[in-house]
Specification:
This protein is of the alpha/beta class. 45% of the residues lie in helices and 25% in strands. α7 packs antiparallel against α8.
Length: 216
């Protein structure tokens, strides 16, 4: 009887370990839920450009066939050595110049996924600078990319509960209507609709991303 009990305890420990690992895998995978925005969610030859971001690079490492991490400061030389090599470039930066230097790394017809995080910026300064999601989108058009889509990650990239297409007014309205029915929730709904009508929503969204394709 005692042997059976010990065996059961061992099996329980193994099961808990399996569940624990599964939970970790789910949390890791959620950081790259944006891959389902791509034409094909499987990640093949991927390059990451940006600051150290363990959650993002760990997820990319686990789910990519091949991952190369390049600091922005090494881009010019890296682009010469790895030209047209990657099917997907993942870039986390607020600087369009970094994205422009990344383009040579992407294979013809390959994809760019670009995250812009403005949480650390002074919101008033960001508003007065007239830099918004549309401005960044125009930057991509000047880089001769195509099939450009922009998405709002709410509330942010690390804790994302919703990825909302900013070009889709119905999706935006639906997102605001999900807000709580309390007076604060109703106030947020009204404010969201006002920001949509005035075009200011693109200035106030703190975390947004772009998916674009490099021309052949």
């Amino acid at each position: 009887m005692e042997a059976t009990t010990k065996k059961d305890q061992k099996l329980a420990v193994m099961a808990n370990g399996t569940h624990g690992q599964r939970d970790k895998d789910i949390i890791t995978a959620r950081r790259i839920d944006w891959r389902f925005l791509l034409p094909f969610p499987a990640l093949h030859h991927v390059v990451y450009i940006g600051p150290s971001n363990k959650a993002l690079t760990d997820a990319l490492e686990q789910f990519s066939y091949l991952l190369k991490v390049i600091p922005p400061s090494e881009l010019p030389d890296a682009a010469k050595r790895n030209q047209n090599r990657f099917s997907l470039a993942v870039v986390h930066t607020n600087d369009p110049k970094v994205v422009r230097k990344t383009i040579p790394l992407i294979a013809p017809g390959g994809l760019l996924y670009w995250e812009v995080d403005r949480r650390d910026q002074n919101k008033l300064a960001a508003l007065l600078s007239l830099r918004n999601a549309k401005s960044y989108e125009n930057d991509l058009r000047r880089m001769y990319l195509k099939d450009i889509d922009v998405y709002w990650h709410r509330p942010d990239f690390e804790n994302c509960l919703e990825i909302i297409p900013l070009h889709d007014s119905q999706a935006l309205k639906g997102a605001f209507l999900k807000t709580h029915t309390s007076w604060k929730g109703k106030l947020k709904i009204g404010l969201g609709k006002l920001l949509m009508r005035t075009g200011l929503l693109h200035f106030t969204v703190p975390c947004f991303s772009f998916v674009a394709r490099k021309r052949n």
